[in-house]
Design goal:
With 246 residues, the chain is an alpha+beta fold. It has 9 helices and 6 strands, in the order αααααββααβαββαβ.
Length: 246
């Protein structure tokens, strides 16, 4: 069996073999690349005022790169004995505590921060590839992550608008109004899958519910998107507020 020396495509193209060694130059390049790649993602997230912004993404990526470089140093210091991926594996699982802190469930049962948590996890993985010297994967991974964050949001919005099942947060003026709302939805060929009372608004004087509805085929000409559904329900005199839970 022949042992093939693996070389990153970019390192091979530039003929800079020192980039895959533990040296002063390679450490500086890896850390700067981590700052650059994570910084680009962080700027995009910060511009949309998300909880994890520029500094958070940069620190996560640098930390992951430092961890895998430290693991490589220990591995070579021990004479190539031990687990080369131990610290990297701990980074992937350990980033969960940071991601969990960005996920929030609002009083309207809306889940916020899932994309931010996933972005932090992906950024940590990118930092590991940089620290390991897999520059090609890191750079193309950075491009794809940015593409997903910027352009896939538009695709996701289109898919949500074309959906036939919605989860609604509905605030009624009083509890008896619920019967009126149910009758209205049925008359509009909208099926109710589930209905849950939200006790968090008990002191507000409003009767608040989380309702999952399904737009039947007969109603899809009238309700072509989520905005039309919201407008129809919001125009009812006994409805104080309504929105789609995403």
């Amino acid at each position: 069996m022949f042992l093939v020396e693996l070389v990153d495509p970019i390192v091979k193209l530039l003929n800079w073999s020192w980039l895959q060694e533990i040296s002063f130059g390679s450490i500086i390049i890896k850390l700067l690349l981590a700052v650059l790649c994570a910084g680009i993602i962080g700027v995009q997230r910060a511009s949309r005022r998300h909880a994890a912004g520029f500094r958070t993404y940069v620190l996560v990526c640098i930390g992951a790169a430092v961890a895998i470089m430290t693991n490589q140093f220990i591995f070579e210091l021990a004479g190539n004995n031990g687990d080369m991926a131990r610290l990297g594996a701990q980074v992937i699982s350990g980033i969960g505590f940071l991601g969990a802190g960005t996920i929030l469930v609002t009083s309207r049962n809306q889940i916020r921060g899932l994309t931010t948590a996933a972005g932090l996890w992906a950024c940590a993985c990118m930092g590991l590839t940089i620290g390991a010297g897999f520059y090609t994967l890191a750079i193309f991974g950075e491009i794809i992550i940015m593409f997903v964050l910027i352009f896939f949001q538009k695709i996701e919005t289109i898919l949500i608008n074309r959906a036939t099942t919605y989860e609604l947060h509905v605030e009624l003026n009083s509890r008896p109004d619920l019967k009126l709302l149910i009758t209205h939805l049925r008359n509009k060929n909208i099926q109710i899958y589930s209905l849950e009372h939200n006790a968090a608004y008990a002191s507000s004087g409003l009767s608040v519910y989380t309702i999952t509805i399904y737009i039947k085929r007969a109603a899809r000409k009238e309700f072509k998107n989520s905005r039309q559904i919201i407008n129809d329900i919001n125009n009812l005199a006994y409805v104080n507020f309504v929105e789609i839970i995403q």
